[in-house]
Amino acid sequence: CRVACCQKVMSPKATLKRWLMPDPEFDEVGSVIWLLSCAFSMLALQAGFAMLESGLMPMRSNVNINLQNLVGAAIVGVFFYLTGWAFAFGDDHSGFIGGSQFA
């Protein structure tokens, strides 16, 4: 029997260890996918809120409401670039929040 008998059978403990210790490359890819999906959902929420506000206001105010939402999203993006990235992904000094990689 060349297939089943000759292969090394992993113990349940080794199999559990393999499941609990993920591949570092996959962990990095998973983190990027999670970050992009969260960013997409936040942009979708921003667009949905803009549509909600536009629907509740008179027609003449739609441009102003949408411009206000766009400027608000741009300001938040700039502040995340300046401070949020460092807080989220900077080297932590106290184990809670990052303190490096500020813009």
Provide structural commentary:
The protein is mainly alpha-helical. It has three helices and no strands. It has helices at 12-20, 24-56, 62-89. Helices cover 68% and strands 0% of the residues. Helix 2 (24-56) runs antiparallel to helix 3 (62-89). It is elongated and about 70 Å long. The chain starts with 11 loop residues before the first helix and ends in a 14-residue tail after the last helix.
Low-confidence stretches: none
Coarse structural class: mainly alpha
Radius of gyration: 24 Å
Total strands: the figure is 0
The count of helical stretches stands at 3
Question: What summary fits the major beta sheet?
Answer: none
Helix percent band: 55-70%
- List the quaternary state of the chains: single chain
Task: Tell me, rounded to a whole number, the average pLDDT.
Answer: 80
Query: What is the global morphology?
Result: elongated
Estimate what percentage of residues fall within beta strands. under 5%
Structure at a glance:
With 103 residues, this protein is an all-alpha fold.
Give the SSE layout.
Elements: H1 12-20, H2 24-56, H3 62-89
Helix pairs in contact: 2-3
Properties at a glance:
mainly alpha, 3 helices, elongated, 103 residues
